[in-house]
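Schema walkthrough. Field components (list of strings):
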Amino acid sequence: METLMSVLIGVLFAIGAYLMLSRNLLKIIMGSSLISHGANLLILTMGGLKKGGAPLLGEGSASYTDPLPQALILTAIVINFALTAFLLVLAYRTYINVGTDDMEQMRSIEDE
Amino acid sequence: MNNIVVLPLIIPMFTGLLLAFFRKNIILQRTLSLASLVAVIGTTLYLVGQVRNEGIQILEIGGWQAPYGIVLVADMFSVLLVLTASVVSALCILFAFQTIGVQREQSYFYSLFQFLLTGVNGSFLTGDIFNLFVFFEVMLLASYVLLSLGGTKRQLKATIKYVVINSLSSTVFLLGVAYLYAVLGTLNMAHLSVRVAEVGQSGFLTVVAFIFMIVFSLKAALVLFFWLPESYSAPPTAIAAVFAALLTKVGIYALFRVFTLIFYHQPEITHTLLGVLAALTMILGSIGAVAYRDIYRILVYNVIIGVGFIVVGLALFTEQAAMGSLYYLLHDMVAKALLFLLGGIIITVAGSEQLKRMGGLIRHYPLLGWSFLVTLFALGGIPPLSGFPGKVLILQQGLAKGVQYAGFNWLTAFALISSLFVLFSLLKIFILAFWGETRPGSNAEIKNINGLLVPCVGLLALSIFLGVGAEILYPYVEQAGYSLLNPQLYIEAVLAR
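Field assembly_structure (string):
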């Protein structure tokens, strides 16, 4: 299972990197979002996938799954969510204001 | 357990939340944000006293014991940085009162400023590496909005690049955290230090150390500074000054913390690489600083040179060098804020960022000119001003280490030469902007800048105090340097019970 997850994470990173290298602003945002999903999955896999019962005291099982990675991912997802929302608004505002969403063209547009 | 440790981050956080409800009431916003900063300075001063007398102070949040819960740790290194950061932000906000403009003031400027300070102080005080990530994000999110606030083309273009590069580096930070958790099974920094010492810093852990080095170098603008010139010259002066004073310093702090507390077992690999990066930063920064004839560009490249110089102290990895770095770090926060504020005033009175359109300002603005000259000497490291104690300690240690390994002589040479470039690039601004003939038209009407100079004079006094009063600060800095190079003090404080 861990191997499969590693392949999935690799694929997410590869697609994310490809998208981030493009010139289109929206694709860059999607790319950064995909990469951070890959990172979240990596945390999950690194903590060890399901190894025992749910981490509740009443369950009475011999071993418990580590709940910490989930807590970390939850925090990271919330932060990433805020970041992506801000980035989308920023990209829209830039598109309205500067008149392009192509990073190459944006470079050649003069300030003011 | 000491509840005061949490105040430097909780006061600005609640003030920021409160201010969001009163966005139209500017007088209230100004009073409250200044009051909050004064309160932070007061509590931090008290905390400095406590750390001096009783050693490292910690707070286990929610009463959860150290390796399981999150701890806040106030050692001398952190509290001195928190103190300086708060004082510098208080003076920068005084500048912002006069320059930032009603529109920004009504668009949550003060709230965001408080959140920025929350993130900065939190990063300095936290004792948990994932929590460090969270506070980095608090700081960065506030800085994204502050950078784009106002929405000019230049700001928007700069913000996009800044946000994308920082979001990528935050993801890499998460990767580092994931690997560290997989290998060592903990995220508490003191506990990490113990476990790394137990299992030995194997090749795998050194690779993880490199991941953190990349992340923090990007935040600190160590070699990976390509995002910095544009984003630090786009926002209004008050915001640029706070960025220059605080944001890169948080990255430098994280480098110091991680490479003195956790990954200190193979200095011949990690710290040597840091030395190479520092040398490269100083060289590239110096080239940038002399290449441009645009005030903001010159100042921005001076920030980069400063970063390189501070990291030299970490690369040398001795107690004296760490003390030198701390002296220089405190000086750099004050002096860079001062430099950006003065640069902003020069641009306002001259009406241009280009040096070729300026001249003869000293006739109408003598105080501005002489403050700039003193700042420039402080940054160049001329005694008795504030840059001197840090530089002398770092250079001494560089030469002492150079006896063992010749590479350090080169590093010292670069550090010394970079100071000359700092002096040269800033003297160029002084000579071209203040001397010579007054340009017709450009500064025809004389503006009243006395109000703007008040915070600058405050920062200047602070900078002179850091130099002349180096002796008074010495015991504090010595304690900080000692606890940096002796991680067991930190570990005992956090894990003792």
